[in-house]
Amino acid sequence: MRVIPCLLLAVLAASTVLPAQEQERVVRGLSFVGNKALDDYTLESAIATTKSSAWARYWIVRWLGLGEKRYFNEVEFRRDVVRLILLYRQSGYMNAVVDTSVRRTARDVYATFRIHEGDPVRVARLDVRGVDGIFDVARLKRELPLQVGDPFNRFLMQASADTIVARLRTSGYPYADVLRNFDSEAGILKAEVELDVQPGPRMRIGEVEIGGLRDVDTGTVRRVTSVRPGSVFNQDALYQTQRDLYGIGVFNSVNVILLDSIAPQGPPTDSTVRVLVQVAEGPRHQLRFGGGYGSVECFRVQGGWAAHDFLGGARTLDLSARVSKLGGTPKVSTGLNQFCNPFGGSWTFDTLNYSVGVTLKQPAFLSRRNVGTLGLLAE
Fold it and tell me: Contact, 26 vs 69, CB < 8 A?
């Protein structure tokens, strides 16, 4: 008899828990009000709450059940307020206030963030130190993303430091760095920014090592690369080398990096830096096939075969063939004529078309920038 009271208690407990478990609501609408400094896309990227896709938002089409539904999370929604406040503070709006309004139905949620941005903290002074004798400081400051008078945006301060580093690394300073210092006062809405540049030693390219080669010879890679021993270090030359090596179609992976990742300490005894060109060769041969149908050309097929590093030198031999108007000739009954003979009786449209081609490509032809191409085509 004691079992029955226990079962009744279990049923009562379950009945009290089930109503508390609300059905998940779909985010049908998400909007921002009062934002001027930051657009809706930037704000949406900073929060976890996201609106459902258009097919799931608009009542005209959402009954179809299409589109991705995104569900409302109360905890993340409250955290989104903190995320937006932090984003505004990072963007220079230290006094920004974020409020919310939510309209709930049994299944849907329409959320709105109401933002009062307030006045921003503005940059009153911007100093760039450590580049005298390397760049024109006044001109450099004019070209930075962060300017005097702008809202004190931490992201633009980082972008300004990255701009200086990039220019130094294309001017022979591979170990350049920038220390960022600032003094911001929300009470008087002013900030003073100092970018302390550590250019490091000016370096030249020393040894260029090449790794990962299997069939391609080292001389071919050296002819294509933009990195030359003895030249002033330039980060763009490393990127260009990577693009050029990808472009010849022989390698699946190319990575051009510094072997000496740390600047020499103490008085420099060697002003050169080593570079590693690490590659991974792709397949030597490639086959390709394709087909299609057109109202004039009827059924058509095409195919090709390519041999990479053909006879060495990273050259590529490519053979291709194409046949069209298959089934279009009335002289042969193929069963396809009902689809392929809209202009029957005209030899222009009834004649089988074909083309065969062979192409030979030679990278670094006469100079590193040139690609020599020789092709023959028969139709």
Answer: yes
Architecture of domain 205-263: Roll (3.10)
Specify the domain boundaries for CATH 3.10.20.310 within the chain.
22-116, 122-198
Query: What does CATH list as the number for 122-198?
Result: 3.10.20.310
Q: Is residue 111 very low, low, confident or very high in pLDDT (cuts 50, 70, 90)? A: very high
Label residues 149-170 b or e (16+ Cβ within 10 Å = b).
ebbbbbebbeebbebbbebbbb
- Distance in angstroms (rounded) separating the CA atoms of residues 289 and 251: 22
313 torsion bin: left (phi>0), alpha (psi -120 to 50), beta (else): left
Question: What are 266's two structure tokens?
Answer: 């103490």
Domain 22-116 classified CATH 3.10.20.310?
yes
- pLDDT digits 0-9 by tens, 276-314: 999 988 888 888 888 887 766 778 888 888 888 788 777
All residues at 6 or more sequence positions from 154 whose CB lies less than 8 Å from its CB, including other chains = 90, 91, 92
